[in-house]
């Protein structure tokens, strides 16, 4: 089923794009990540220009997040109070990221920067996820003892910040400055990379902010929803890199996948899920690193402005 993408200026197999959306939607429901950190590189592997892949993936992540938020909200798994604070920071970050995107695009380096950011972030996050999951299972431990899950407690730097608020559903008494900074970082990354930021937000919520695990996934999706909505609008009006046909095909699969992922998360063992996700992330990072080191088949290419 060949489909023409007007902004990417090429024809693709629509069924492949729908299945890709289904896979990333399942990841969204299972882990509380938007799935964009996998969607964008996979689209790039398929031949979509990195700028179009990043902008369109942000649109797809929005749809997957809507479905996931509704599913977790029914189980009281969303802390809306701290979520709104992170969203405020994310909106500011999206605007900062838009400025960086346009500057890098004007000097012709945006594609290279997107690829390098993915290699660095995916390689680091994937490695840390694998290490933590294996330690929890007792497979790998530097002290020769069975790994233990870290006690939930926010970072000492977080405790030192002023103007503390109580976030009852998350069980926290911390400054709103910390979650706002987290949102700012995620907003910039979402704008540049088309990611929802969940692969950074979820670990940060657990190990830096010290949030309750019960609300981390749902709250992450809540933030991803609003941040990617803003990023999509900014891309549409500034970079004009959003391919609505590509985003629509991804959404067909991702909305269904998010519901399936939410059900899987209720029964599967978290440690094995993290090992699987960590392996996928590391493999993609290595594939992108390889792509940066080899000479492409076509040294020159023409992309729509």
From TrEMBL:
InterPro entries: TM_pro_TauE-like (IPR002781), TSUP/Inactive_protease-like (IPR051598). It is found in: Cell membrane; Membrane. One of its GO terms (cellular component) is plasma membrane. Keywords: Cell membrane, Membrane, Transmembrane, Transmembrane helix. Its main location: membrane. The chain crosses the membrane at residues 12-33, 80-101, 113-130, 177-208, 215-238, 244-260, 272-290. Pfam families: TauE. It is a multi-pass membrane protein. It comes from the Bacteria. The keyword Transmembrane helix applies. PANTHER family: MEMBRANE TRANSPORTER PROTEIN MJ0441-RELATED, MEMBRANE TRANSPORTER PROTEIN YTNM-RELATED. Belongs to the 4-toluene sulfonate uptake permease (TSUP) (TC 2.A.102) family. This is Probable membrane transporter protein. It comes from Aurantiacibacter marinus.
